[in-house]
Amino acid sequence: SKSMSLKKTLFKNTTINMAGYIYLLFAALISIPILIRNLGQSQYGIFIIFSSFSPMLSAFDFGLSQASIRFLSLPDLDLEKRKRIWKTAISGFFALSMVVSIAAFLFLTFGVSRMASISTIDSSSFWLMTILTCAIVFFNHLNTGMLALPQADQRFDIYNKRVLIIGTTNTLGLAAISYFFKSPSYLFTAQLISQI
Hints:
Layout: H1 2-39, H2 41-51, H3 53-58, H4 64-72, H5 79-110, H6 123-146, H7 148-152, H8 156-180, H9 184-195
Helix pairs in contact: 1-2, 1-8, 2-9, 4-5, 5-6, 6-9, 8-9
């Protein structure tokens, strides 16, 4: 029956989501001490300051992703209307990605650059990390929009694969990279690659 199938799908998707979050929790618990040991407290602190911008600014999608998912999942939507909604949503996500990236750039340039802990890094490293961070923010917002269509089609496997790839890169992957490269710039490069 249809209600049993819906319950089964809901249970399966919820279980997969929870397993993914538990995996990422344990991956973070493993990788954080490794990152601190390999980078040192000062460099790790700088890494955390810069890397906090992407999750912090991801909250500023102004409901666009939820609205896109809601409208794209309506049952009586014909293909032409669906394409129009999708194109509008992607344009909105692109514009929003640009705005939050610029906001990140301005905040890093005029706010973070004045922090005492940031004064320990040279100017070229600061600008490289600023550009990489802004690119990560941009692609993170854009990817959120790109995932609206699979989510509307109840293809949570695609969403979960993205979370798994990016989450693994941001935890275990960065811990492994930090064994070889002691600069946060290399870690941001890996994060950016995982977003693209």
